[in-house]
Amino acid sequence: MPTRRAIFSSYIIPKESASLEEGVTKWSIDGDATISGTLGGKGIATLTGSQWGEAWSSFQHPEQYWEDYGSNWDDAGETYNNVGITISGAYSLNTDSDVNSTALVFLYLKNLGSSSTQGLKLSLDGSNYNIYIPPQGSIHLRGDGSTLQLQHAKVNKVTDNTTIEYILAK
Amino acid sequence: MAEKIVYKNYCTPQEQADFTTATDRWYLDSDVGRSLSGVCESKASTTGSLVTGVFSTTISLSSKKFIYVKNTDTSGSNYLLLNIGSMGAVIKLGPEESFASDIGSNASDSTSVAITASGTPAYEYIAGT
Questions:
Q1: Mutate: best of A141, A147, A170, partner B, most B CBs <10 A
Q2: Mean pLDDT over residues B1-9, rounded?
C-alpha cells in the first residue's frame, strides 16, 4: 500500500496603489505598518495510502499504464485526458456513494476557467455555497476529521460553465 | 491598508517509494504527476488591518469577501477551526497552516466567518471587504 501526503501552502500579497504625475497607476506590495509585506503559511496533510477510488484526483500521471486502472477506469470520469472536469451545474466531487460518510482529510481545488464569467463556488455542507473561487484561483483545506465528509464537497458554476482540477482525499 | 489582494494556493501531492535497503523517498504522487497551484486577484478591494492575538473566545466576522487566517503556533496540537457562511466549523488549521480564499457565493457577494479553536493557539488574520 502506498504512503501519501500533500504539502500545501498559501501566499498572500496585499497591494497598494499610487499615481504618477500623469495619472499612471502603479502597484506595490503594501507597506502598511500592520501588514508590512507578504503573508502565508504551510503544512503537510497525511493522506490515506489507498484512496477511495480513481476519481480521488482529476489527474492521470503521464506515465500511468492504462492497464493499471483495472476495472476502475470508468470511475475516473474525464480525468484520463487531463483536461479537467467540466462544471455545468451542481457537481459532487465524491463520485462513490460507498464513501459518502468518510471524513474528508484534504481538498485541493482549482478553477481552470479564464473568463471573468467562469467563477466557481464551493460548498462544504452539500447545500450552501459560501466559498468563491475566481478563474485561475485555487483553494486548499484540511477537514476537521469528522463533520466534513466526502459527500459534502460540491461545486457549481456561478454564471458560465467552467472546468476544474482537484484532489479529494480521505 | 491594502487596496488589492493577490493570493496563491499551492499543493504538492507526494507518494513514498519503499526501497528495500535504500532510504525511502518522497516523489510526486503517481496518480497526479505534478505540483498544483492557482493564482488570482481577490474580489475584495481592501484588506483591513492584520489582526494578531492568542485565541480566547469565538471571533465573529460579518460581511467579508476574503479571508486569510493562520495558526501562528510553531508546534503543538492547538488548532483553529473556520466556519464560513454557516457551513460548519469544518476547516482545520494546525500550527503554521493557513487558509486563504474569496468567500461568498459569487464575484460580489460577502458572507460571515467564525473562528474557533481547540486550545489557545496564536493566530493572525486579514478579512477583506
A1: A141
A2: 87
